[in-house]
Design a protein that fits this description.
110 residues; alpha+beta; 5 helices; Transcriptional regulator; ArsR-like_HTH; WH_DNA-bd_sf; HTH_ArsR_DNA-bd_dom
């Protein structure tokens, strides 16, 4: 199940519009109207993007009267960040070992 959720998070983040929405929400909660304002798309299209973000746990929304306010859910981003950090760490170790090997190999030729 965690892999499925992570797949959903990365799929959601693969879209530039949704990344813009996430970026806006890092500054604090926003209404759907506020999120839609800088985008060149209809309100129903914005709502579809928000549904994707909510389905994977990156965003939650609440409705008060006629206003729907969206909030960032940091746990979804944290999961993606942890996975990317693990990948980065693995590659850094591999590159460090390669660098050490190359340094040793050069020293044996002199």
């Amino acid at each position: 199940m965690p892999n499925q959720r992570m797949d959903q998070v990365f799929k959601a983040l693969s879209d530039g519009t949704r990344r813009e929405m996430i970026e806006r929400l890092t500054r604090g909660p926003a209404s759907v109207k506020d999120l839609a304002q800088p985008l060149s798309m209809s309100l129903p299209a914005v709502m579809q993007h928000l549904q994707v973000l909510e389905a994977c746990g990156l965003v939650r929304s609440e409705k008060a009267g006629r206003v729907r306010t969206c909030h960032l859910e940091p746990d979804g981003l944290r999961m993606a960040e942890d996975w990317l950090g693990g990948q980065r760490t693995g590659w850094e170790h591999r590159l460090d070992r390669l660098g050490g090997f190359l340094d040793t190999d050069e020293g044996t030729r002199s």
